[in-house]
């Protein structure tokens, strides 16, 4: 089975907490602070692997967590960084944010790596907080949380050329003849269940990847059959070979078939209908083909390059493949993703939000949460450090802009404080 969509949850490691510790040596009775820093949390990383061709593994395991960083230790010893977790995906995997639908990254290169969820930073130990006026800080900094994210993985084939056309027009036969691919070939009207890839080799440094794109039937763009699942693979191809049963051997009109397939491409994504198409009028070895070919050329011959031949007898296939190769050299192609406005960088914000809600002054945000967890409210130095940070980050100024007065309550996370300067 060809699995090309999976939804998974990712959680980067939390940074280790800084330590509060003191030097305890025989001849140092008044030893100073010696708490070490916490280690950074592990990242969650995607890496492409050419040996993997489906997203099957992600159907069985849906949650992945990187290792937390170790807490700092005494004697200024740092905690160990958490280990990264590397998730291997096929080349051609598109990663989308589940919540917004925005594209995070397009993994289209081999051995490409991308940090999808960054681990939290380790907190500083109390040894880091000594100053000329604060010789013995009895507080340390908490490690920050790692990024958590739910993403959709979507695999799109990375073929240079896509074979499109109705089922049973000869796409699989053509693919098996021009490449080493061995798709199942039979006389049926339902479609292949997975795209078949093959490499066309015309000589030294003259090769390209070709794919039989299944699922293209009338109504495919609206979800009929499996077409909407496989139309996404057409987005990655550089050009298309439109295979037609020019003989009309099964009672179909090749001109009508051509228009119907192109309507499905346009309905799914208008840019698909703008891709270069080369027509291969197949089954020329069957009676009636010559007459239909003339009708087709009269209708569309001025707008498309048309080759006629037979996949079954290999007539004109070599000429078709050489023409396709030359076209690929002249075609400047960029992989289809999404508009820039939808692409998100997903850098973790460490901001502070100051606002009023229901008549109350409130302060929250990732940075303030980390600051609160790092503060020892029973220690005067730790309290001073807390207040200094609020002032340095303009929290006091923002509260004043909102109209706070001496003695008013301020709610920082779940704690209530009395405002004074």
UniProtKB/TrEMBL annotation:
Residues that coordinate or bind Mg(2+): 172, 192
Q: According to its record, what are the GO cellular component terms? A: cytoplasm
Q: Where in the cell?
A: Cytoplasm
EC number(s): the record gives 3.6.5.-
Q: Which domain of life is it from?
A: Bacteria
Where it mainly occurs, coarsely classed, is cytoplasm
Q: Which Pfam families match?
A: DUF1967, GTP1_OBG, MMR_HSR1
Which keywords, in A-to-Z order, does the entry hold?
Cytoplasm, GTP-binding, Hydrolase, Magnesium, Metal-binding, Nucleotide-binding
| Residue stretches making up the Obg domain | 1-158
Supply the enzyme class, top level. Answer: hydrolase
User: Gene3D superfamilies of this UniProt entry?
Assistant: GTP-binding protein OBG, C-terminal domain, GTP1/OBG domain, P-loop containing nucleotide triphosphate hydrolases
Give the residues the record marks as binding GTP. 165-172, 190-194, 212-215, 282-285, 310-312
Q: Which cofactor does it need?
A: Mg(2+)
Molecular function per GO = GTP binding; GTPase activity; magnesium ion binding
- Give residue ranges for domain OBG-type G: 159-329
GO biological process entries:
ribosome biogenesis
Domain OCT residues, every copy: 344-421
Role of this protein = An essential GTPase which binds GTP, GDP and possibly (p)ppGpp with moderate affinity, with high nucleotide exchange rates and a fairly low GTP hydrolysis rate. Plays a role in control of the cell cycle, stress response, ribosome biogenesis and in those bacteria that undergo differentiation, in morphogenesis control.
Q: Which family does it belong to?
A: Belongs to the TRAFAC class OBG-HflX-like GTPase superfamily. OBG GTPase family.
Assembly: Monomer.
Protein name as annotated: GTPase Obg
Q: Which organism is this protein's natural source?
A: Anaerosphaera multitolerans
Recall the taxonomic lineage recorded for the source organism.
Bacteria, Bacillati, Bacillota, Tissierellia, Tissierellales
The encoding gene is obgE
